[in-house]
Amino acid sequence: MGLLATVNAQLLTIVLIGLGSVAICSAAARVLGGSKDPQSIVLDEIAALPIVFLGITPTGPAVWLAGWLLFRLFDITKPSPICRFERLPGGWGIMADDWAAAAVACAALHGLLWLDRIAQWGMFAVAA
């Protein structure tokens, strides 16, 4: 299976998980008192994490850790324009800032892996 087929499968999975998560997060926020983005809801982080690794090959523990750390950095600090997505209503607002943080983390991870290859650092080398 080629990279394009793999990325298409990843995208389909991300969209299906994302749409289901919007509905679940909307319902959970209502049950929890209608807060904009209750901290007790962690499904948004879990559902957004696959976006970080979209199109990333090869993978291994160092890549997974770097991706997760980048995602958490952007999710916690919420630099602009990521913070603007929280303004969306209901589950969309709960999920969208995490999607944006994951997309930025994905771009950063692709860049880091590219630098690792070009500079031959070997930080993310995966044994064959």
Task: Describe the 3D structure.
With 128 residues, this protein is mostly helical. The chain has one domain (3-119). 67% of the residues lie in helices and 0% in strands. It contains four helices and no strands. The chain has helices spanning 3-31, 43-52, 61-77, 90-119. Helix 1 runs antiparallel to helix 4 (90-119). The relative contact order is 0.16.
Notable traits:
128 residues, mainly alpha, 4 helices
SSE topology:
Elements: H1 3-31, H2 43-52, H3 61-77, H4 90-119
Helix pairs in contact: 1-2, 1-4, 2-4, 3-4
Category by helix and strand content: mainly alpha
Element string (H = helix, E = strand): HHHH
Contiguous helical run count:
4
Low-confidence stretches: none
Overall helicity: 55-70%
Tally of domains: 1
Radius of gyration: 16 Å
Report the end-to-end length measured between terminal Cα atoms.
18 Å
- The rough form would be described as elongated
User: What is the average of the pLDDT values?
Assistant: 89
Instruction: Report on the biggest sheet.
Output: none
Strand content: under 5%
Give the quaternary arrangement of the chains: single chain
Strand elements, count: 0
A few lines on this structure:
The protein is mostly helical and 128 residues long. The chain is built from four helices and no strands.
